C-alpha cells in the first residue's frame, strides 16, 4: 500500500537479499502458496529483485545446494509466469558452525553474489569460534555479510564486538523486521543505533511468513529508515553489478 503519487515503500531498498521465501525447506515459507504471497507482497512494495536465503546449519536445517535448487526451481517457474520482471535467485544464510568450515574448505558456499556470503551466529549464546570462522572466510577471499547484528543479544553489552567486526570489513545487514519492532524493543533500539552510527551496509527483510509484512510497513515509518535509504548499501551495489553484467 502506498499513497497515490508516492513510490511503493520498499522501492528505495531496491532488492531483498535476505528472505526465507523458498517453500518447505527451512522455518520459512511452508508451501508454494505462501511463497507466492510473500513475493506478491514484495512486488507491490516495489521490489523487483529477491535473493532467497534458506538456512544452512548442521543441527537444524541440513540444506544442500540441491535441496535449495529444487525449491527455488519450483517457485521460480511460477513466479516468472506471474511477474516476468521480478528476478529471483538463491543463496543461503550460512550458520557459522563446523559445517560452514567444511563448506569453506571444499569451496561449496552459496554466496549472495560475487564474493559476498550471508552468515549468522547464535542469538542466545556467544559461539566460541565465531571470530575464527569469520577470519577463515576472509582468508579465503570471501566478503562476509553478517545477518541481523542487532539480534545478537550477547553483544548488546559489548560494543567492542561490533567495532572489531567492522574493522575486519564485515558488512552488517540489518533486518527491516527489527526496525519494525517484531522481535522486541532491544533489537529495535540496537538496529536504530547501528543505523545512526552509519554502521549498516546492507538491508534484508528476513521475512519467514507473509503475515510479518505488517512489520515492514512499520519499519518504513521509523525515522531511521530514511537514514538507511540515504546511504550506499550492498543492495544498490548488487543492482549496479547486475546492470553491468
Ligand atoms: Fe534469516
From TrEMBL:
Keywords associated with the record? Hydrolase
| Keyword Hydrolase attributed | yes
- Could you say which enzyme class this protein belongs to? hydrolase
Pfam families according to UniProt? CpsB_CapC (PF19567)
Q: Which residues form a coiled coil?
A: none
TM ranges: none
GO MF terms listed in the record are: manganese ion binding; protein tyrosine phosphatase activity
Q: What is its EC number?
A: 3.1.3.48
Catalytic activity as recorded in UniProt: O-phospho-L-tyrosyl-[protein] + H2O = L-tyrosyl-[protein] + phosphate
Give the protein family. Answer: Belongs to the metallo-dependent hydrolases superfamily. CpsB/CapC family.
User: Can you say what this protein is called?
Assistant: protein-tyrosine-phosphatase
Q: Which organism is it from?
A: Arundinibacter roseus
Amino acid at each position: 500500500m502506498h499513497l497515490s503519487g508516492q513510490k511503493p515503500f520498499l522501492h528505495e531498498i531496491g532488492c531483498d537479499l535476505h528472505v526465507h521465501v523458498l517453500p518447505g525447506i527451512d522455518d520459512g515459507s511452508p508451501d508454494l502458496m505462501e511463497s507466492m504471497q510473500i513475493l506478491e507482497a514484495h512486488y507491490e512494495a516495489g521490489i523487483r529483485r529477491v535473493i532467497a536465503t534458506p538456512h544452512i546449519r548442521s543441527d537444524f536445517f541440513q540444506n544442500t545446494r540441491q535441496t535449495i535448487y529444487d525449491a527455488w526451481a519450483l517457485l521460480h517457474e511460477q513466479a516468472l509466469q506471474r511477474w516476468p520482471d521480478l528476478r529471483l535467485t538463491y543463496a543461503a544464510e550460512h550458520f557459522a558452525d563446523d559445517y560452514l568450515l567444511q563448506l569453506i574448505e571444499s569451496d561449496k558456499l552459496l554466496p549472495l553474489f560475487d564474493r559476498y556470503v550471508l552468515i549468522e551466529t547464535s542469538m542466545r549464546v556467544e559461539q566460541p569460534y565465531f571470530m575464527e570462522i569469520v577470519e577463515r572466510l576472509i582468508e579465503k577471499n570471501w566478503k562476509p555479510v553478517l545477518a541481523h547484528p542487532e539480534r545478537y543479544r550477547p553483544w548488546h553489552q559489548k560494543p567492542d564486538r561490533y567495532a572489531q567486526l567492522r574493522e575486519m570489513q564485515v558488512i552488517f545487514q540489518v533486518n527491516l523486521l527489527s526496525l519494525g519492532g517484531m522481535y522486541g524493543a532491544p533489537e529495535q533500539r540496537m538496529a536504530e543505533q547501528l543505523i545512526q552510527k552509519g554502521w549498516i551496509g546492507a538491508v534484508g527483510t528476513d521475512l519467514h511468513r507473509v503475515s510479518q509484512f505488517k512489520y515492514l510497513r512499520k519499519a518504513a515509518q521509523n525515522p531511521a529508515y530514511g537514514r538507511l535509504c540515504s546511504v550506499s548499501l550492498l543492495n544498490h551495489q548488487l543492482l549496479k553489478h547486475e546492470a553491468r553484467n
